[in-house]
Amino acid sequence: MKTTKILSLFAFTLILVFSSCEDKITNKDLQFNSWALGCRSFSVYKINADNTLGIAVIGNREKLFLSTEEQIFYLSETKQDELKVVLQKYNFEASSHFCSDYNIVGSKLLDTWTAISGNVKAKITQDAENIPPKIGEVYKVDVTIENVILKNSKGNKIFIQHLEFLDVWVNILLG
Description:
The chain has helices at residues 2-21, 61-64, and strands spanning 37-39, 42-47, 53-59, 71-74, 83-90, 109-126, 139-151, 157-170. The protein is mainly β. The protein has one domain (26-170). Strands 1, 2, 3, 4, 5, 6, 7 and 8 form an eight-stranded antiparallel beta sheet that branches. The longest helix has 20 residues, at 2-21. The termini are far apart.
């Protein structure tokens, strides 16, 4: 009887340890690629080295009155339909979930953190009028996030002090 209780307690402890590991993010996980990609009105994102974590800044150019002058947006004062920062963890192939109409079979979302505070600096670095007409209405942006706190549905928080998305083509609709 005593052995059964000890084994049950041990099994329960293992379940707790392994179930809490799935959504744990380490500093190594938060090392994103130096390059960034983009799409939509403006959506910029980066993926970590093992392609399991992606961070995106998603905004609406018109609602934010984005221009060639750098602007600072405070996330605690900005509506989610105007600007948001999200961090998403996948079991693999996180890159297939950003700016894409299709996802890799078997790649699934494990957790999402949404910014609750911090700021976003953004500016247009090359507007559509300066781009050859065959490309269309695309433009380039620089986006920097600073002192951003993200929170998931379990209340776990992640802090990102500084991350840059530089010279990213946006307003592109990719397949």
